[in-house]
């Protein structure tokens, strides 16, 4: 019956042709697109075009060629904006995830009076916490006293009501993930933003695990800022240049970390020591863009424009729901637990599969040509990405996992993570 369902769903899948645009090895079931998306032919072509512009034009490539470099970050920001429900000028492709977080916190965290604390959560990605602690220390504030961490009730999820309860008069800034990186929980960004603003608190979100997987309405919801990487669901390649969003209402707020690529484009080469910032999210750039690490996004974003976020989200939810049904029907006797929310409105793009032997099971999966992701201490993350994953792929992933467990193939591996998990 499950086989018939996968065949039926693949037969009517409006997005199935996109799989041919990606380099996925024959026989390999790639379920790690929430860590690193695979290379598309479009991205490969775009990188070749930018390399050719460098070869043909040299320094004139900044203003000449197929993809002039001087305005590339702004142009790609405009193409990325629909993915998060933002105005074109509110998005810029620049920097790295953590570098952009440092920029945004240095800009918007202005402790004054009793408002001197930053609110985060205990399940967020460690790099965000490192950055927040650093920013507090730069302002001579103790992280132990001024970084407030919302606790999880079960070690998997964060309840919105607990976050709202922590929005006290001492909070100056809130930084939260849109999707929790381990459990895949999708937070209610609209509700949290409204509650923060009722209390006069600025709020921003880490979109690393939602951009390209979940539609957002950041401008409509009046989210103050956001930041993300582009190498997961957006398939920008390892080390791809990241992105940030700043709501238009903040465009006159001077960047905390000024740099010349944040300049007004007409003024940048005046070489004045007086910084004249761009009147867009471009003001929050710092250094010269990494053009070759940006180039794959040119091709990748073309695919997203064609596919559309609504269709991608619909298929993503169908894939993860099918995967959870298979886990429950085929793996119930092997000690697995689904750690992500079951409700569509609370689930991101991956399934969080918990097991005490998770590290060694992941190694066995790779031996069986399934590429998963391990997160300590006991999580197997499986991300069926709608652009290049079929329902048959999901079916076969769980079938291979069942075989591994039935034959106890995982027992030959130590239950410890590799250097890179």
CATH architecture of the largest domain: 3-Layer(aba) Sandwich
Q: Runs with pLDDT <50, length 5+?
A: none
Tally of helical segments: 13
What is the number of domains? 2
* Beta-strand segment tally: 13
- Report the portion of residues in β strands: 5-15%
Write the element-wise H/E pattern from the N-terminal end onward: HEHHEHEHHEHEHEHEEHHEEHEEEH
Textual characterization of the structure:
Keywords: Hydrolase, Pyridine nucleotide biosynthesis, Pyridoxal phosphate. The chain is of the alpha/beta class and about 425 residues long. The protein has 13 helices and 13 strands. The strands form 3 sheets. A 7-stranded mixed β-sheet has the order 2-8-7-6-5-3-4, with helices on both faces. A 4-stranded antiparallel β-sheet has the order 9-10-13-12, covered by helices on one side. It has a two-stranded parallel sheet with strand order 1-11. The chain starts with a helix and ends in a 15-residue tail after the last helix. The model has no long low-confidence stretch (mean pLDDT about 95).
């Amino acid at each position: 019956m499950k086989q018939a369902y996968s065949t039926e769903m693949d037969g009517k899948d409006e997005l199935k042709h996109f799989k041919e645009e990606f380099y996925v090895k024959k026989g390999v079931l790639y379920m790690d697109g929430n860590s690193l998306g695979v290379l598309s032919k479009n991205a490969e072509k775009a990188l070749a075009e930018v390399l050719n512009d460098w070869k043909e034009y040299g320094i004139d490539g900044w203003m000449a060629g197929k993809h002039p470099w001087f305005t590339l970050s702004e142009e790609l920001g405009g193409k990325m904006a629909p993915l998060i429900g933002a105005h074109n000028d509110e998005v810029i492709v620049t920097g790295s995830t953590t570098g952009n977080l440092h920029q945004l916190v240095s800009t918007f965290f202005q402790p004054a009076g009793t408002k001197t604390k930053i609110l985060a959560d205990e399940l967020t990605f460690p790099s965000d916490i490192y950055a927040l602690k650093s920013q507090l220390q730069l302002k001579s504030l103790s992280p132990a006293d001024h970084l407030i961490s919302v606790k999880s009730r079960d070690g998997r999820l964060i309840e919105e009501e607990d976050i709202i309860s922590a929005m006290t008069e001492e909070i100056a800034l809130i930084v939260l993930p849109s999707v929790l990186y381990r459990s895949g929980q999708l937070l209610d960004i609209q509700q949290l933003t409204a509650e923060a603003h009722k209390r006069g608190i600025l709020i921003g979100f880490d979109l690393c695990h939602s951009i390209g997987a979940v539609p957002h309405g950041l401008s409509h919801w009046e989210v103050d800022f956001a930041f993300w990487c582009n190498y997961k669901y957006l398939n920008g390649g390892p080390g791809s240049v990241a992105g940030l969003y700043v709501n238009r209402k903040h465009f006159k707020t001077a960047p905390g970390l000024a740099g010349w690529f944040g300049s007004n484009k007409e003024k940048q080469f005046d070489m004045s020591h007086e910084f004249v910032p761009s009147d867009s999210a471009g003001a929050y750039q710092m250094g010269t863009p990494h053009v070759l690490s940006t180039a794959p996004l040119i091709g990748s974003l073309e695919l997203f424009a064609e596919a559309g976020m609504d269709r991608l989200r619909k298929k993503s939810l169908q894939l993860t729901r099918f995967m959870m049904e298979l886990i429950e029907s085929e793996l119930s006797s092997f000690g697995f637990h689904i750690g992500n929310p079951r409700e569509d409105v609370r689930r991101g793009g991956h399934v969080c599969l918990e097991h005490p032997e998770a590290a060694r099971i992941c190694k066995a999966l790779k031996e069986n040509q399934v590429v998963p992701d391990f997160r300590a201490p006991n999580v197997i993350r499986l991300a069926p990405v709608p652009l290049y994953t079929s329902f048959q792929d999901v079916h076969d992933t769980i079938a291979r996992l069942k075989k591994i467990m039935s034959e106890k193939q995982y027992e030959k591996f130590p239950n410890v993570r590799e250097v890179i998990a």
